Task: inverse folding
């Protein structure tokens, strides 16, 4: 293998899109090669795991019988304690609209580079089209391209990064943002109730100016999926994240094993981020997850990161602290920034919040 000194620096590699390399049939260059622990059974997408499915319709409707309601609430709590994620159905967002989001995302990424590059970001910026900012030296790179946008509060939207092609992109994203806000309200209330807390307690911690960011991920096919990762293992720095996916590839680490998240048509996967682990005093888990590449099909996902308002202190809910369960975390603010610093070094940041 060539010595590190003759490799192009990560800045140069990251200024080139993975999609271009894939279309040119190029082999993944060294910094993308991250898998030395290849295990064929972990790549077998046909054996997916049963991630709990929760019907949010039951938890939001006054019509549900109280028995059914209590049962669903208990399922939700248990899913978040053991997996840190669940597949939400009955969320109230129409199937045709969810198809539309995936479709506009696909149309965006399938355009010529010249069109996409109108929205490109530099290797130090977050927002726009491209790769994540350059990680610390020695860290591997992800075999994927992204379009990352701040979407809420509205005054944070920077339209120079919002595609005008496909023509309906902006309208669809605005509508999805509004729908995701409703979903987060419903989810936050249901999660609080499942822990016998005031239904507004999580919404209050996130604050009036809680943040939503959209990340459109495009995972190109790769001839050597055994060598690379679409997205390296990480836990999210958000409060929690909702994910739409059109192909398998996402895996969650649980009980010493990687589990492939199955495609449940029109379900939205809700994944706890570190900040919900802090707020629930460790009752809910923020799971480590990653994305594998595929030699046959590309993959689109749309992640919406829901994060507490800038500068707002968050910390364990008092109702989840007692003699048996002392405070595991201290109060923190702007945790997502701390998380990012560690992420770039391939590390988790949760320990920085420990009491
Ligand atoms: O593509 C996916 O399914 C997961 C994306 C993800 O984990 C992230 O963007 O943080
Ligand atoms: Fe993630």
Result:
């Amino acid at each position: 293998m060539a010595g590190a000194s003759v490799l192009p620096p990560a800045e140069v590699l990251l200024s080139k899109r993975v999609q271009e390399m894939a279309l040119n049939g190029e082999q993944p260059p060294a910094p993308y090669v991250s898998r030395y622990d290849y295990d064929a059974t972990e790549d077998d997408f046909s054996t997916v795991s049963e991630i709990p499915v929760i019907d949010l319709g039951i938890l939001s409707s006054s019509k549900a019988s109280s028995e059914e309601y209590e049962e669903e609430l208990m399922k939700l709590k248990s899913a978040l304690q053991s997996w840190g994620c669940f597949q939400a159905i009955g969320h109230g967002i129409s199937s045709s609209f969810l198809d539309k989001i995936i479709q506009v995302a696909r149309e965006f990424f399938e355009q010529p580079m010249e069109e996409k590059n109108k929205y490109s970001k530099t290797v130090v910026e977050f927002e726009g089209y491209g790769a994540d900012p350059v990680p610390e030296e020695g860290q591997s790179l992800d075999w994927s391209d992204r379009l990352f946008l701040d979407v809420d509060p509205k005054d944070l939207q920077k339209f120079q990064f919002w595609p005008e092609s496909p023509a309906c992109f902006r309208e669809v994203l605005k509508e999805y943002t509004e729908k995701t806000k409703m979903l987060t309200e419903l989810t936050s209330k249901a999660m609080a109730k499942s822990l016998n807390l005031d239904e507004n307690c999580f919404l209050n911690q996130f604050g009036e100016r809680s943040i939503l960011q959209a990340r459109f991920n495009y995972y190109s096919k790769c001839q050597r999926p055994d060598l690379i990762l679409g997205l390296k293992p990480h836990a999210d720095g958000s409060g929690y994240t909702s994910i739409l996916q059109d192909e398998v590839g996402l895996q969650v680490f649980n009980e010493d094993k990687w589990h492939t998240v199955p495609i449940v048509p029109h379900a939205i996967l809700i994944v706890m981020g570190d900040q919900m682990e802090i707020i629930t005093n460790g009752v809910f888990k923020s799971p480590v997850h990653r994305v594998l590449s595929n030699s046959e099909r590309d993959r689109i996902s749309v992640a919406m990161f829901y994060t507490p308002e800038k500068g707002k202190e968050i910390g364990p809910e008092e109702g989840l602290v007692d003699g048996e369960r002392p405070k595991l975390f201290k109060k923190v603010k702007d945790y997502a920034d701390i998380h990012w610093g560690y992420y770039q070094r391939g590390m988790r940041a949760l320990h920085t919040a420990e009491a």
Observations:
- Residues 1-5 have pLDDT under 50 and may be disordered.
- Residues 215, 217, 231, 236, 243, 245, 250, 289, 291, 301, 303 surround 2-oxoglutaric acid (ligand 1) (CB under 6 Å).
